[in-house]
Amino acid sequence: MGAPGVTDEYSPPRLSRMLHALPHINVTLHRVNDTFAPNSPVYLESLGILGSIPGAWLILTLTVLLIYLLTRCCDRKQRPPRSITALKITLMILSVLCCGAIGVGLFGNDDLHNAMLQSIQAGNQLAALVNTVKNQSSILEEAMGSRARAPLARLADALDAPVANQTALGTLLRALSALRNNASAAASAADNLRRPLAALNLDAFMKRAWVWEAARWAGGMAGWCCGGAVCVALLAAAARRSRRALLLLCVGALGALVVCWLAGAVLAAAAVAAADACQEPAAALAHHAPHNLPQDMVHYYLSCKVSRENVLTAELRNAQRAVVAVRQALAVLARGAPQLFNDPGLQPALGALGAGTGEAERALVALSGAL
Known about the structure:
Blueprint: H1 14-20, H2 41-74, H3 85-144, H4 146-159, H5 166-194, H6 202-240, H7 243-279, H8 281-288, H9 295-303, H10 311-340, H11 346-370
Helix pairs in contact: 1-7, 2-7, 3-4, 3-5, 3-6, 3-11, 4-5, 4-11, 5-10, 6-7, 8-9, 10-11
Membrane topology: Multi-pass membrane protein
Transmembrane segments: 47-69, 89-108, 217-239, 246-272
Main location: membrane
């Protein structure tokens, strides 16, 4: 499994641990359980309180701005044209800083987009594996189930003919019974492999995720670019000393400020919720994601714990043992039945069963690689 000391077990990222460590409190300022629970009103209340921190800062900022505007409205003293030079310089410095922050935001948006594309690519690979398991298990079930019934019936009819060697006939009948039972067991194991994944359609989910991510990336880039354009225009207006442009752009910047802080409140709550889920992602997806998979299967494929047994591997082993037994019983029948009976339907039945067994063996090889 790699070098000594290297483990494949999942470890939460440092940033998620830092966000998860933020205090989760309710309206009475008491600590609440910080386990990811989107269906819990108490947990959602704690996220709302954490998300209200940027909103509270926005309210404080707007209050200070309102007080400043009230003082300016009540100030009737005539001021020289150069009295706001310091304010213009401050505005220009803040515009430059905002442009730098917007540049960081553009980089972060693009970096997140690349990470999401990698996640979607990994999801597409997982969807391909799921489709392989469903398709190959269906092939295995059909080869050992519905397609084997008619040849087995013809073979049973052929063995009903009277013969003198009852010992050889008993051996063939036992082989036929073993073939029938093991074919049924292989078909049942294939159905157990396919049934948990039948309702799982990752292809459609990955397509929706790609559309959502493309819209998020385009909207984020457009928003950051609009904010940068406002800052650059504000900087140019301050340099040209255009009062009308300054007033118009300041109002636009104020609106952008409100939108940014409101978005920051939503993102803060979402980031803390994602950090809480990242502490135990297997449990979060097993209990809260919309799927019909068994919880132990979700835990196995997401926890990366080698000590946990794959719930699908047991069914795969059952199918492999059953197909091996089918091949052995078929070899006994193919060796002894033509010597004992002259039924013209015997060879086609044996050939059909042999072809179906070969197809089942190839399906098992593909399933072994996928699981």
